Amino acid sequence: MVKLSRRQLLLAGFFTGAGISITTSHFRDQINGDKSSQGEKGSDIAYEAKISESEIRQIRRSVNLKPPLIPYNREMSKILVRCCRLATEQYLQGLEDPKYNGAIANLPSYFSQLNDYEQITAFRAIRQRSWLEPLMKQTWLRDLIPKTDLIYAGFILKSSVNNIIVFRGTQEAKEWIANLNVQQIDYQSNNPQAGKVHQGFYNLYFNGLKQFLDEAIGRLNPAIPCYVTGHSLGGAIAVLAALDLALNFSNLKEQIQMYNYAPPRVGNPSFAKFYSDLVSNSYRVVNQADSTWLLPPTQLDNAIYLHVGQRWSFINQTGDLNPNHQLAAYQDAIDHNVEISQPIIAPGVFQR
Predict the structure, then answer these.
(1) pLDDT tens digit sequence for 231-261
(2) Measured between alpha carbons, how far is 123 from 102 in angstroms, rounded to an integer?
(3) How many domains is the chain partitioned into structurally?
(4) Does residue 237 form part of some domain?
(5) Is 348 among the domain residues?
(6) DSSP readout, 303-339?
(7) Is residue 30 part of a domain?
(8) CATH number of the domain enclosing 51
(9) Tens digits of per-residue pLDDT, 304-350?
């Protein structure tokens, strides 16, 4: 098994940081140069320039999302956040080794608690070559150009007690572009109650990843919990996948639990309500020193975005934008049981 090189990991971190910066700049530009509106004294509402803090709170109250019926499971969250890290390592290993088949058992962060699980599939696709690669060939980065055109985006595990479906965060140029495709489209064209969702996230899931889920779903035990999880972009995909399962696989509906980490907002208030009624056992974990979960803004032009899932918060301030968002910060907090379900009051951090 080819080990992941330190330079590959550094490059992945570099592009993640660059992508976060690009995404943040894009949403700031969408505000048309307006200054951030300040609601209550001392609160920072980040990119919410066209809507006040009180209006944001009123939107959330008016939707009245259904609370979870099952308590947040700290021990399961520790497993799931580690699975999200494995999904990133799976992607990096696929870039390094043309013979790699997507198996997670020999990845650096594999842990013994997964020994009782069987991996039944890996999400994969043909990657689109980045426009950066010709430039990289002219520098020391030439050695870091992927050796394969096959990319991995997550995996499915099953055991006698749990099913786990994992989606990784943004890595590819196509995925960064999808993050910026914030136009809202109908979730279901024949059901106006389903609301509208982020077009980029919708396309990534329904035009690629869904087929792997559909092919593998028959191998999952519908009598045990089915956890759907992801970090960042993977968290948005986890929302769409969990709802898809609830709608189209009725025998799994009552077993679905969605845990995501640093997820962006996925849809409008109607979608949030529709989702909440079908997948109430949903939990989103956010580092309040990480700004990416504030995207897309609640109001972006004429679109309104709203989070789903019961929020669990912590503060892990590393001193920089990219590390605040990385899985290491989330895993460290969850390992130490510091996430809480109440808002954390901290100077300069707007509570969601």
Answers:
(1) 999 999 999 999 999 999 989 999 999 999 9
(2) 8
(3) 1
(4) yes
(5) no
(6) EE-B--SEEEEE----SSHHHHHSHHHHHHHHHTT--
(7) yes
(8) 3.40.50.1820
(9) 999 999 999 999 877 766 788 899 999 999 999 999 997 665 544 43
Cβ within 8 Å of residue 338, ≥6 positions away: 314
Max distance between CA atoms of the chain, in angstroms, equals: 57
- Token duo for residue 274: 């529709």
Q: What is the DSSP string of 100-130?
A: -----TTSTT--GGGTT-EEEEEEEEEPPPP
Q: Please say if the pLDDT value at position 24 is more than 80.
A: no
Retrieve residue 293's tokens: 């979960």
Residue 342 lies in a domain: no
- In the chain, which ranges are continuous DSSP H helix? 6-30, 53-63, 74-96, 133-136, 173-180, 199-204, 210-216, 233-248, 269-278, 321-325, 327-335
The gap from C-alpha 251 to its chain's centroid, in whole angstroms, comes to: 25
Element containing residue 174 per DSSP (H, E): helix 173-180
Quote the tokens at residue 78.
Answer: 């520790």
For residue 321 the two structure tokens come to 């934008």
Query: Helix 269-278 and helix 53-63: axis angle, to 10°?
Result: 40
User: Strand 150-158 relative to strand 163-167: parallel, antiparallel, unpaired?
Assistant: antiparallel
Helix (H, G, I), strand (E, B) or coil at 91: helix
Q: Which domain holds residue 98?
A: 6-335
| Mean pLDDT of all residues in 198-208 | 94
**98 DSSP 8-state letter:** T
For residue 88, give the nearest of 290, 261, 264, 311 by alpha carbon.
261
Mean pLDDT across the chain: 82
Which neighbouring-strand residues pair with 125? Answer: 151
pTM of the full structure: 0.81
Buried b or exposed e, range 57-83, using 16+ CB within 10 angstroms:
eebeeebebbebeeebbeebbbbbbbb
Instruction: Write down the residue that tokens 């999904």 correspond to.
Output: 87
